[in-house]
Each structure stands twice: as C-alpha cells, then as structure tokens.
Design goal:
binds tetrahydrodeoxyuridine, Cytidine Deaminase, domain 2, 33% helix, 5-stranded mixed beta sheet, alpha+beta, 18% strand, globular
C-alpha cells in the first residue's frame, strides 16, 4: 500500500490542535491508516492527576478498535509545532500490538521509519503464546 504521508501528517496536526494539555502544554496529535485504508486518530488528554494522562497514540488505538479494528500500516505522530514526535516507550508497545514491527512512522522522509527501529526485540502476542508454562 502506498502511504500518503501528507494526509496523515495533516490530520495529525489537526488532532494536535484539539489536544487537552493544560498541564504540560505539550500538544500531540496522531493519525494512522489501517490495512483497510481507514484513517484513525487521537490526541493527548491530560488530567489533574498527572499519571493518568492519555497519550495521543492511546486515543488512536481506541479509535481503531471502536471503528471496527484492523492492522495499523502507517502512523504520523506530531507535536503542536507540526514536527514528528517519537512515541513514548509505553506507546511503542501499544503500537506494536496493533501494527507489528513493520509499522511505518512519519519522520519527514518519503520512506518513514519502521517501529522495529524504535522498539527492537519487542515482546508481543506471539511471545505470550510460545512462552506459557515452563515449570518442569
Ligand atoms: N505524549 C503523547 O501524547 N504521546 C507520546 O508518545 C509522548 C507524550 C503526551 C502526554 C502528555 O500529555 C504530554 O505529551 C507531555 O508528556
């Protein structure tokens, strides 16, 4: 599937403008495309109890499931200035679950970068299946 980074980045910037970030003033927007060609979106939503803040990628994955699921093929995550933002560690793991190591991330280049460059040797669904038990 060819990826229209302009669409993903533009939608992610629109999402960043809708962020609820009164505490950090760091706005984050995300837009991804599924293997079915559907766009999914999210923005960060902060909370007075700082630790329960929702990252933009979490909102995007909720949109993915709520809209019928599918696999993520590519995603743009941007800050309020519109520039690409590298997902936090927790969100890398969350994105891995739904897009795998070949998920492509917007980095301003035509190719983008793949998730395995950000989360090498990821632990995922296959490991849960193959590593159950082990007591002898
Ligand atoms: N944030 C995200 O939305 N995604 C990330 O991958 C990194 C961090 C948000 C959370 C918080 O609202 C703000 O950025 C500052 O940490």
């Amino acid at each position: 599937m060819s990826i229209d980074w302009d669409v993903l980045a533009t939608e992610a910037r629109t999402m960043a403008a809708r962020a609820y970030a009164p505490y950090s003033d760091v706005r984050v927007g995300a837009c991804g495309v599924t293997d079915g060609g559907r766009l999914v979106r999210g923005c960060n939503v902060e909370n007075a109890s700082y630790g329960v803040t929702l990252c933009a990628e979490c909102g995007l994955v909720s949109d993915l499931a709520a809209g019928g699921g599918g696999r993520l093929v590519a995603i743009a995550v941007v800050a309020g200035d519109g520039a690409p933002l590298a997902p936090c560690g927790r969100c890398r793991q969350i994105l891995f679950e739904h897009g795998g190591s070949a998920l492509r991330l917007f980095d301003g280049t035509p190719e983008g970068r793949t998730l395995d460059t950000l989360l090498p040797d990821a632990f995922g669904p296959d490991d849960v299946e193959t590593r159950r038990g082990g007591l002898t």
